[in-house]
Write a structure and sequence with these properties.
mainly alpha; two-stranded antiparallel ribbon; 10 helices; three-stranded antiparallel sheet
């Protein structure tokens, strides 16, 4: 696949960067629409997203570089070439949550409410961003056959794109996109339920993504490694178990306690 979407006056615009931008824009639009229901000013949401996205991208890049330090220590300038790929979502999540925490504390918002607002947008943006991996011919799985890909109901244009150097590979980016898309729909439904508690959507997002990522990561051939183990799988297990424990704690509260759809609970007060 050609990673370059178009070239203007010698400046290359790559699919990877473009698709991440599209995911961010759609995510912000959805987030602002939901925040309006709780009378959270549009400017506050935009500013939160602005800082969280910038810090999140930096965090995602630092995370990726640290686990590939043996390469980047000799190629310092390539650390800044994020348009060529190399963003680790777990690093972005960590950096983004820290940023939202600080913003919530400064503005007096309920942190979990803000995270619940952002969770569906985030998982959708992640899924859309995965298509950038397709055009970069990265984040794919092990070698397979054309017939096997057809049996997995992979669209023909993706099968052709997964023919890299005459070898077909599993399109793990596509599987993750589908997983994220289903997760987005589930989160939207859960968030609209009458008795959904604040924090539930965030927990389900982390559990859903972690569960899928653990198995998808097992097929990938370009995983970040730590002592012979795939880092994404380790983080996925930790996130899944910790959020499962927390969601059990949340639902031990009274049926009417801390409801997400209580429009009067946007701020800490």
């Amino acid at each position: 696949m050609n990673p370059v979407m178009l070239e203007i006056f010698g400046l290359e615009i790559k699919w990877y960067s473009f698709l991440i931008l599209v995911g961010i824009i759609i995510g912000i639009i959805l987030l602002e629409k939901e925040a309006k229901k709780f009378k959270i000013p549009k400017d506050d949401i935009f500013n939160m997203c602005f800082y969280a996205i910038i810090v999140g991208i930096i965090g995602a890049r630092i995370y990726y570089v640290l686990f590939n330090i043996s390469y980047y220590r000799y190629n310092i300038l390539e650390i800044f070439a994020i348009w060529n790929g190399g963003l680790a979502i777990h690093g972005g999540i960590i950096a983004g949550v820290i940023t939202i925490y600080l913003y919530a504390k400064k503005k007096g918002y309920n942190l979990l409410r803000l995270l619940d607002l952002a969770a569906p947008s985030l998982i959708l943006a992640q899924g859309l961003g995965r298509w950038g991996n397709f055009f970069n011919s990265e984040a794919h799985g092990f070698a397979t056959t054309y017939t096997k890909l057809q049996e997995l109901l992979v669209p023909e244009f993706i099968i052709k794109g997964m023919n890299i150097g005459g070898v077909y590979y599993l399109p793990t980016f596509y599987f993750e996109f589908i997983w994220c898309l289903i997760g987005f729909i589930i989160l939207i439904i859960i968030r609209r339920l009458k008795y959904t508690k604040i924090g539930t959507t965030t927990c389900l997002y982390l559990m859903w993504y972690s569960f899928g990522r653990f198995f998808i990561e097992a097929w990938r051939t370009d995983s970040l490694m730590l002592g012979g183990f795939k880092v994404a799988q380790i983080i996925s297990v930790v996130l899944f178990m910790s959020t499962l424990i927390y969601i059990i704690y949340l639902h031990k509260k009274g049926k009417y306690a801390d409801l997400y759809n209580d429009i009067n609970k946007g701020r800490i007060n």
